[in-house]
Amino acid sequence: MVNMEHSAHRILIVDDEARIIKTIERVLRAEGYNNLLGLTDGSAVLPAISGSTPSVIILDLLMPGIPGEDLLHTITHDFPWIPVIVITGIDTVETAVRCMKSGAFDFIVKPFDRQRVLASLRHAIGISALQEENRRLRDRMLSGAVNHPELFEPIVTQSPVMLAIFRYVEAISRTAYPVLITGETGTGKELIAFAIHRVSGRSGAFVPVNVAGLDDNLFSDTLFGHVRGGFTGADHSREGLVTRASGGTLFLDEIGDLSSPSQIKLLRLLHESEFSQIGSDVTRHSDARIVVATNQDLVQLQASGQFRKDLYYRLVGHEINVPPLRARCEDIPLLVHHFLDRFSGELQKPKPVQSAELGEWLSVYEFPGNVRELKSMIMDAMSRHLDGPLTLASLRRTANGRPQPSSWESMQRSDPSIRFPDALPTLKEAADALVAEAMSRSNGNQTTAARLLGISQQAISKRLKNSGV
């Protein structure tokens, strides 16, 4: 039976030996890949790509016409979305390093292992499909959903919730009213603030400042500046950040930690667009747009008297809540590939392939530190990575240094009761149902399913055998 999903992917096989092409074709056809094109001349590759873009290219290096390494460089430069798997008889470390640095997706030495080629191809097609979806998403945004998607480019996402935020940002960007951005630590609140500034078209600078830990005097000096002699030791005048943000955007992060006296001064700036430098009686005008962010509940803070109600209502006219990463799991694969690309470039290392187990674990990990935590995980793993696929063990060391509580534990904290049907299941029936559910959630990966249940992989394997699965 033809696998329609496999047949949808066009695979270009480039090798100077026709028998090698036929061998690879037999391997791929046996797995249901039927949309294949074999070429023995390197000079025919670029016209073939231009005529009909392949999902994956399998490339030999010893080619007539255009040398394989030159082809690789051209393809990765002009068609960076097409994964290139190099399969060659040149078995040297130097060649492998050059190919990976040139952007090869994988490097396989002849005689090749059939399963290795198929595994690499499946992974490459997955990446290709993900990038294609990203391009389609960008096309939809360009068609009207978001007017200026390029201004949101630093934010890597395909989440409908995040795209709704982009549309809201465009809707409010031209107003002068302040914006309150809420969300957990590490969700990207500053990136949203920067997007607001970029979309607004303001000619001035984007000036960020974290106000957490600033006492009233330091807050006043940082924001408003001082004149010479304004206080002991003030030998020179200093312009504050409000002045630096003239015509632009002033972003105040961690606004929930602002002291009461500083809240009054910020309220005056918001209400009257006026301020005075320390040591000066001259009132100055500000045209900076104010955007603030917090990971705290300002409603609760104002109820307890820690945050002024009049300031809160000044800030809440435009409010954006950035969802945590666990609420937009569809972004995790995109972010992983984004950070792998970034840090492999910065560290001048080949971009590694992810192990299947790692992908499964990332899909169930709750990311208490959100995008910032994922970024740190990938950076640390890439710093220590030497060769081979990126494994689960290399990332778990940085998962906040401790096992993450499961969703069940989180639910139990909020609702400790367990609800059962009228007819209670036996212990074996309940255990079998739990194992089946864990296997379903982990897409059949026993190691991930075992981790969800808090048991060993050997234990879940034994249970599956005993239940006849």
Mean pLDDT: 83
How many domains in all?
4
What is the name of the CATH architecture of the largest domain? 3-Layer(aba) Sandwich
At the fourth CATH level, what is the homologous superfamily of the largest domain? P-loop containing nucleotide triphosphate hydrolases
Shape descriptor reads globular
Secondary structure tally: strands = 14
Distance between the termini: 25 Å
What's the story with the biggest beta sheet? 5 strands, parallel
- As a percent range, the share of helical residues equals 40-55%
Rounded to an integer in angstroms, the radius of gyration calculated over CA atoms is 28 Å
Q: What is the helix tally?
A: 21
What can you see in these coordinates?
This protein is an alpha/beta fold. It folds into 4 domains: 4-135, Rossmann fold (3-Layer(aba) Sandwich); 147-323, Rossmann fold, CATH 3.40.50; 326-396, Helicase, Ruva Protein, domain 3; 417-466, Arc Repressor Mutant, subunit A (Orthogonal Bundle), CATH 1.10.10. It contains 21 helices and 14 strands. The protein has helices at 4-7, 18-30, 45-51, 68-78, 93-101, 114-145, 160-172, 189-200, 216-224, 241-244, 260-272, 298-303, 309-315, 332-346, 356-364, 370-384, 392-396, 407-414, 427-441, 446-453, 457-466; strands spanning 11-14, 36-39, 56-59, 84-88, 106-109, 179-182, 206-210, 225-226, 238-239, 249-253, 274-275, 284-285, 289-294, 318-321. The strands form 4 sheets. It has a 5-stranded parallel beta sheet with strand order 2-1-3-4-5, sandwiched between helices. A 5-stranded parallel beta sheet has the order 7-10-13-6-14. A two-stranded antiparallel ribbon has the order 8-9. β3 (56-59), α4 and β4 (84-88) form a beta-alpha-beta unit. α7 (160-172) packs across α8 (189-200), α19 (427-441) packs across α20 (446-453) and α20 crosses α21 (457-466). The longest helix has 32 residues, at 114-145. The chain is globular. The relative contact order is 0.07.
